[in-house]
Amino acid sequence: MRVRKQIFRALKKKPMTFWELINFQDSHIAEFTKTLKELMEEGTIEYKDHKFYLSKDVPLRAKEPVLCPICGIGVKLQGFFLEVFKQFVEDTKDRPLPKSDYDQGFVRPEDTISRVAFMYERGDLEDQEIFILGDDDLLSVAIGLTGMAKRVTVVEIDQRIVNFIRNFCERKGINWIVVCEYNALKELPPEEKGKYDVFITDPVETSKGLKLFVGRCIEALKGKGSVGYMGLTHREASLNKWWEFERFLIEAGFVITDILRDFSVYPERENMWEEFYKTYELMKWLPLSIPDTDWYKSSFIRFEAVTEPKLPEFDPPRSPKELYLDEEAWATPKTPRTMEENL
Question: What is the pTM of this model?
Answer without folding.
Answer: 0.93
